[in-house]
Amino acid sequence: MVYEVQNISEIYSEYITMTDYETKKSEYFNCKYCGTNNKKRFRSKAHLIPEFTGNKEWFCYDECDNCNHIFGNYYENALKNFGAFKNSFLPIKRKKPHPKYIDGHKKFSIKYRNDNTLVMNTSEIGNFFDIENDNIKVSSVTPPFIPLYVYKCLFKFGLALMNTSDFQKFKSSIPWLLNKDMKIKGNIPYIMLLNSQTKPVVKPIAILLKRKKEYNSPEYSLVFQWGFYFFQIFLPFNSLDENLDYNELKFPVFENFVIKNNKGNFGLSYYDMDSLSKVKSIYDANFGLKNFKKIKSPLI
Ligand SMILES: [Zn+2]
Predict the structure, then answer these.
(1) pLDDT for 163-189, tens place per residue?
(2) Which of 14, 36, 86, 289 is deepest in the core (most CB within 10 A)?
């Protein structure tokens, strides 16, 4: 496997973006994932990308309540726990008031108020912040999350954006996707590229990339930006990717994922997400990936 940071725009093009998405009328009330077409199972309106990431406008009408429940309660929740602390510093808009982030361990809370003030509360004089060079550094232990759930969440964003004929190629992923604790190997490793220090966005950006020419890399890649986080994954389970030469697989990635480690060496920030063990991480408001210890990272 080789990661390439030079040529992504030569190999991939933007195929479907969240803002272009529309469920075809013929696909309304036919669940893309489990296949049900029982109208009674479409009582709730499914967000294309979760509301907590700042999406209030884009919905899909081909996701039933059962599937929505699995995706929301497990996978999207895992993503939320993964990023809640750092993104609580941003005025990400949603239906409800901004959520309060509570650190039960260090006993403080963070809440963005509608008048654009960030309020941090603590019931005791704790050690949750440091002042260094005129910067306040706040650290927190995140709520627990399961890495594979975060990965399944991003994978599902990719499927949600696809049209029916592209989706047909991913049929073999469905048992794995719908059974939260199923761990099977896809044809592409469950690798997530992550940069947690990008210029933040208050509305999410989700783009499905498609390979535009013959190349020994997966046909689809998803990029997703939420608050401070920028993610990229390559979608496993595509039947057409069976033709690739797996020993020489190439992954063209955005240069945003190139980071400098403690020793001053450059590396790529990517994580193996194939784990069902709960993880908690220590983050700070300027957090570096060095704090993100519990997920394997081959290059750091
Ligand atoms: Zn369903």
Answers:
(1) 999 999 999 999 999 999 999 988 999
(2) 86
